[in-house]
Design goal:
- By secondary structure, the protein is of the alpha+beta class.
- It is built from four helices and four strands.
- Strands 3-2-1-4 form a four-stranded antiparallel β-sheet, with helices on one face.
- A hairpin with a 5-residue loop joins strand 1 and strand 2 (60-64).
């Protein structure tokens, strides 16, 4: 044999290395399976996230889903008596924007454990882009009042 060991000993060493590699691959596959299951659960949880916000004056309430899509819009009984359509439209727009930021943050928080501790693409492949740079940052949005000034923060609604 090239390494000077008897054939039986060389074979036993190869079998031991193969067994160790198989165990390592099995542990990696088990980890990937568990991570995939956690990711699927987090995605399911994230798909159910909603945000409901009510304007500070109580005239409008919006609900958006995890994609930031408006799913419910409610006006108070006297909303059109107490406000003009243009003002209500701006209020609804601001509410939807803030609710969208809120659901995106909640989804990001749900998904964060799935990515914590994982290597970035650039860590694995030289010259590859960082996936972290592709994740959007969600700005704080404050609605503007009728006079163009920032209104007080909106209140979180029921639901």
């Amino acid at each position: 044999m090239p390494d000077g060991r008897p054939p039986g000993e060389h074979r036993a060493a190869l079998e031991a290395r193969n067994a160790a590699m198989k165990d390592q691959v099995d542990r990696l596959l088990d980890g990937v399976t568990r991570q995939t299951e956690r990711l699927q659960q987090a995605q399911a949880d994230a798909s159910r996230v909603t945000a409901t916000l009510t304007s500070k004056d109580g005239l409008a309430t919006v609900t958006v889903n995890s994609a930031g899509v408006l799913t419910e819009l409610e006006f108070s009984q006297n909303a059109f008596e107490r406000s003009r359509p243009e003002s209500l439209a701006r209020t609804v727009q601001a509410l939807v924007q803030q609710a969208t930021v809120q659901v995106k943050r909640q989804v990001t928080e749900l998904m964060a454990p799935m990515t914590t501790g994982l290597p970035d693409l650039s860590d694995l492949f030289e010259g590859a882009p960082s996936l972290g740079a592709l994740i959007p940052k969600f700005p704080e949005l404050e609605p503007e009042g009728e006079d163009g000034q920032q209104d007080a923060p909106l209140t979180k609604g029921q639901g």
